[in-house]
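Encode chain A's predicted structure.
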Amino acid sequence: MIANIGLLAGLGLLIFLALRGVNVFIASLLGAMVVAVTNGLFIPAALLEHWPFGPLGAFTFAGQFFLLFLAGAIFGKVMAEAKAAPSIAYALARKLGPHRTLWIGMIATAILTYGGVVVFVVIFAVYPLGLALMQQSNMPKRLFVGATSLGAGTFTMTALPGAPSIHNVISANALGTSLFSGAFLGIVAALIMLGLGMWYLESQRHKAAAAGEGFEPGPRDVIPEQGMDDPDMPGWLPSTVPLMVVLGTIIVPRLVLLALGDSASEDGPLLHRVVLFADSQPIIWPSMALLLGTLTSLAMFRNLWAQPMGTLSRGAEDAVMPLLNTAAVIGFGGVVTQTEGFVNFAEVMLGSGLPPLFSAVISVSIVSAIVGSASGGLQIFMQTLADRYIEMGVDPEVLHRVVTLASGGIDSLPHCGAVIATLTIMQLTHRQAYKDIGIITVVVPVIATLVVMGIAMAFMGA
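Encoded structure for chain A:
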């Protein structure tokens, strides 16, 4: 009993401190200590082994994703200082109108995420573009955070069939299913998320305008003072080339692999080996794509030629805090997974007597919430509980889609690594922006998951 209470107390403390603006390293370590003490973990082991270097340890995560964060931050800085991202933004604003800023942000992030770009990279790439759009439309940054969270962290992450997201891959690998499993359920969930999410954001846009709430740049934001009249700003069409290089480098190998089908072989021609390598490297390949985008920008845009290393250095500096802040929260999850309370929770859920699919949804949701990570929670669920639910009669393809959806719901509490990284990149606090993020990435996905779960239980015998 004390172990379970300790888990909740540690999680509650972490969330409370995050909302109060306490440094995430302090919050994570204090929360981990509460969990360790109440669960009888040896404190030195918890803080020196499980928190930093466990399977879900802070520095395990930081080491694994360092290149991706670095490449993403540098690419974002290059696009901003080259004034290429603002150029695209002004063109979109002229074509679609500044009042459609939220749609532009959502669509841009959705395309990139569904194309296989990791969510952190998407934020790095789209944020400079969004700055100019928000300035043009005088829109609060908190709403643009909501729009990008909708595009990058909801339906493209867990719902759309065929998505190359890590969440979809985890489920497919563990259950022996395909990335297109539960396609109908996924499409229904995606439509619900998109419809509810944009309805909420647009209603908030009108309320903000009526209240006189407008755009306020952060201290590190780079926005061209001369706007569309800036003589150093490149044209919108060449400005899209680096983005197309990044997106094309990621998507083209997937299309080629789809065309090759079962004929693709590591012993085959060079093309086969390249596309198989790209498909098997969810970190290195996107990092290479971002590097190519950066080199393309440096070659194309003259306003970067004077001090290219300065731009690259500033981009590298921008990568540090988002990476470390995210890693700190992951470390808390690394301690949680070692506890008696976590083991007890798993057994309670399996013996709860609830309908198996409903029990599975609750299980993966709570695990994802505790570790503050949809992918982390889903991986733990698949390793520890998935086989038991299959034995209880749940169809593997239905389980694939429904629990993947469920993992992307209450994972996004204030201590979630992706939430903290997004707020850090966009220079906002939980107090300023979490309400909108929470509704978009918690409330809306939970509603979609419950609807889809109900359909599966009613019509698919799950």
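The CA atoms of residues 57 and 331 lie 4 Å apart.
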